[in-house]
Design goal:
Elements (H helix, E strand, L loop, with lengths): L2 H26 L2 H7 L9 E3 L6 E2 L1 H13 L3 E14 L2 E13 L11 E15 L2 E11 L3 H7 L5
Parallel strand pairs: 1-6
Antiparallel strand pairs: 1-2, 3-4, 4-5, 5-6
Helix pairs in contact: 1-2
Length: about 160
């Protein structure tokens, strides 16, 4: 493998590790680590779209949204599938499917509210910095399942 291919493989491995670290911080509810995953000094250009939310712009607004999610989620786990990484220069594009298992605040007498599964397709854009690859943008969109579509269709009797 020539030097250029070796560097590209190393870059891809670093981006994949940064992507994984972002989701692991969210799973742990570690807001400080999650904040460290995002591009610093880009208060105006950082953006995030959570499924069903409007576009959030600016590092502060994005990080506040994660604090709100963490405060209202007792348990969350991500199983990433279909991970694909494309790179050009100092920018990397990661697409993946987030298979999410989450639980809300506990109901009376229970340690955890009911667990809910959700599928989200996500696009994460990373930029290379002196401190490694940092998130510039995250966009998550819900995946409609066949049962969701069936609910919308009335079958003639």
């Amino acid at each position: 493998m020539n030097e250029e291919h070796a560097q590209a493989a190393a870059d891809i491995a670093e981006v994949e590790a940064a992507n994984t670290a972002f989701y692991e911080a969210l799973e742990r509810g570690d807001h400080e680590a999650l904040a460290g995953s995002w591009l610093p000094g880009e208060d105006l250009t950082v953006s995030c779209v959570h499924p069903g939310w409007p576009v959030l712009t600016g590092r502060g607004e994005v990080l506040r949204s994660y604090a709100l999610i963490m405060a209202n989620t007792e348990y969350i786990q991500f199983f990433l599938t279909d991970v694909n990484i494309a790179m050009t220069g100092d920018t990397a594009l990661v697409t993946c499917t987030e298979n999410i298992l989450s639980g809300g605040p506990a109901e009376e007498g229970n340690a955890l509210g009911p667990l809910v599964g959700q599928l989200v397709v996500a696009t994460n854009v990373f930029r290379r910095t002196p401190d490694g690859w940092k998130l510039w943008s995250h966009h998550g969109s819900p995946v409609l399942t066949e049962s969701d579509e069936d609910d919308d269709e009335e079958t003639p009797s």
